[in-house]
Each structure stands twice: as structure tokens, then as C-alpha cells.
Amino acid sequence: MSTPAHGFSLTLDDILHQYGSAIAVDHVTLEIGAGELVSLLGPSGCGKTTLLRIIGGFLQQTSGRVIVGGRPIDDLPPNKRGVGIVFQNYALFPHMSVAENIAYGLAARGADRSAQKKQVGEMLELVQLSHLAERLPKQLSGGQQQRVALARALAVEPRLLLLDEPFAALDKSLRLDMQIEIKRIQRQSGTTCIMVTHDQEEALSMSDRVAVLSRGRLEQFGTPTAVYDRPETLFVNQFVGTANQLQGTLESTSAEACSVRLPGGRILQCAPPHEALPGGSDVIACVRPESLRIGSDADGIAATVELGLPLGATIVHEVLTDDGLRIKTSEPRLPGLEPRAPGSRITVSPLAASAIRVFPVPA
After folding, report:
1. What dihedral angle (degrees, nearest 10) is formed by the CA atoms of 67, 107, 139, 141?
2. C-alpha separations of 32 from 4, 13, 66 in Å
3. Which pLDDT band, with edges at 50, 70 and 90, does 251 fall under?
4. What would the mean pLDDT of 124-142 be, rounded to a whole number?
5. Which of 97, 126, 220, 237 is deepest in the core (most CB within 10 A)?
6. Domain spanning 10-233: which superfamily?
7. Which residue ranges does the chain devote to CATH 3.40.50.300?
8. 242-360 has which fold?
9. Partners of 85 in the β-ladder
10. CA angle 295-298-301, nearest 5°?
11. Is the whole-model pTM more than 0.90?
12. Which backbone phi and psi does 309 adopt, to 5 degrees?
């Protein structure tokens, strides 16, 4: 790029958007740092695409402010906001070459021929497509088309880059390569990037921070590690990753831990709940399959293996405890290791109390 981008901060200040009486975005506030890659993660209908359209200026929010680099931009039309967008279908011009597609935004902004040529050359080098400059989009693979769309968005040196489900059209085998590639390009360009996705692996692998949304509300905003290891709500624990859910009663709690009594009488030591709960509360104790150890410990939960699935580098077992609880476990699979046979007797033990998160039973 002719002048390296250093990114701009983005503030979403109490954004509310309604369609009639229906609330699509419910008072969302986010502070995104310059140069960050942040994912808006959630199921269909959670408000993530609405937020992206509000940032881009394609939709006027009901209330709240969009602030870029310390300046509100709500009064600016889309073409004046300094926002680059990569759509799900890439939206390349089929009759234009790769170089012409990348130059389109520059030409629309009145850049002269020499400036266009220089910037296009730098963009082609950035996305490693210099050897394909004269090809048409139909002569490119899906991953190559995606890189062209990314180069076109970055060529105008946007203050923000918006990615709308950027990997949805790619085969699974290509997605990881393109996730690494886009992360590399984003890091090299220094552009602040907001990505919409419903794919949790995509969000966790690429993002500096993840905003998890549900029904228009912000459930949690934090690093991928914090969101996965320390979910603040039951929804986040259910949506991000996989977790066994064990209903029980909160016996006692302290700043370091809490005790939950399961229906069979067993007491689990767990991490303290995110919100203060009185003793005797009905709660759900959540533990991820990889946080359980299969063995024959005397203090473990006695169970019978019902099913074993070898999933590449891991083995997942579904087991039935003697108390009637159905639990999934996950463990690394060594070469040649087969799943345990159905009917095998085992015990299941949590790796640590901190691996069990506790939430109130939804009303």
C-alpha cells in the first residue's frame, strides 16, 4: 500500500434498532481498538448483520451513535464513511480482469492512472495474485476470488473493513487456509476489521476479540480464550463450543469456588457463578467434554460407555452415569487408538473445579 494503514478505533454507542415494534439490536455498546479484528458472532436473527449494515451506513439506527476515530459518522452516507466491504458472494465484476476489479474503487474516487497502477500492483502483491492480474473472475478459484474482493476493499485504504460471512461460499478444506491468509493480510495492512459470522471456530481462530450476540443483545465481549473458557451466560456456554449441562442445586459459594448438589446426591466443586446467587438456587453446571477425564478413579462418577466416535485427532464418548446422566467426553486420539467398546465400565472426573461453570436455570 502507498501509505500503511494504522487502523481507526470504532465505538458503537448504545445502538438500538427497531423494525416496527420488533427490536433487532438492543442497546449494544462496543469499544473496538484501532487495528483490531473483531467478530460479531451469533445465530441467525441475533442482530449481527444489522449492526454491520449500521456501521456501513446502509441502515440508519433508531438511536445511538457510530463513532470512528473519535468522530461520529451517523450523518455520512456509505461512500463517505471510509468503509471497505467484502460481501459473502464477493460481488466481483465478471467482465473486468483481476487488476480492473481492484482498481475500480480507486477510479471511482478520481485517482489518476499512475496512482491506480501503483496501488493495484501493491494490492496484488499483498494478496499474492500478481501472476493472475489479467484473468477474469470466472477463471479463478473461490479462494482467489475472495482475495481479489479483499484487495479491492483494501485498495482505497479504508478506515474500517467489514467482512460479511466471508468464508460461507468456500469448501471446508479451503476455509482454514483463507482464514490464515485474511488474518495475515489484515495484520499486514493494519486495518480495523469487523467480521460477521455464525461459525464459532471461525470467530475463535481469527479474532482478537469476539462479541457474542443473542436476540439483539450483547451477551459477552472478550478474547476468544475468555469467551470459551469463562462464558458469562448460559447462552454463550451453549453456543460457543460444546458443554454438558447438569442441573442441580447450589449448596454454597465463595470467591474461589462453589458447590452444586446433583439429583443423585453427588456434590460437584465448580467455579463461582458469574452473578451472585443465593444458596438453594436451581442451577445448571456446565462442563466441556475435553474437561472430563475417563479413568477408574474411586472418586469419579461411575458410568457405562454407550457410544464412541473417532473424530480425527480426538475420540468422543457418550456415557451414561449410574445416576442416569448422559455425558459426552473428549480426549486426544493416539495413532491406532480405538474408541472404548459400548458397555465398558469407566469413571468420569472433572479435570478441575475451574472447568465447571455455573448458571441460574432460565426462568
Report:
1. -20
2. 20, 11, 11
3. very high
4. 90
5. 237
6. P-loop containing nucleotide triphosphate hydrolases (3.40.50.300)
7. 10-233
8. OB fold (Dihydrolipoamide Acetyltransferase, E2P) (2.40.50)
9. 162
10. 65
11. no
12. -125, 115
By CB neighbour count within 10 A (0-12 exposed, 13-18 middle, 19+ buried), where does 326 fall? exposed
- Please tell me the predicted confidence (pLDDT) of residue 102: 93
In this prediction, residues 69-90 reach a mean pLDDT of: 89
Q: Nearest 5 degrees, angle CA 259-CA 264-CA 265?
A: 40
Q: How crowded is residue 221: how many other Cβ atoms within 10 Å of its Cβ?
A: 20
* DSSP states along 108-161: HTT--HHHHHHHHHHHHHHTT-GGGTT--GGGS-HHHHHHHHHHHHHHT--SEE
Cβ atoms of 281 and 253 closer than 8 Å: no
Note the pLDDT tens digit of each residue in 310-344: 998 999 999 999 888 899 999 998 888 899 999 99
Task: Pinpoint the residues of the chain covered by CATH 2.40.50.140.
Answer: 242-360
**Placement of cell 491506480 in the chain:** 116
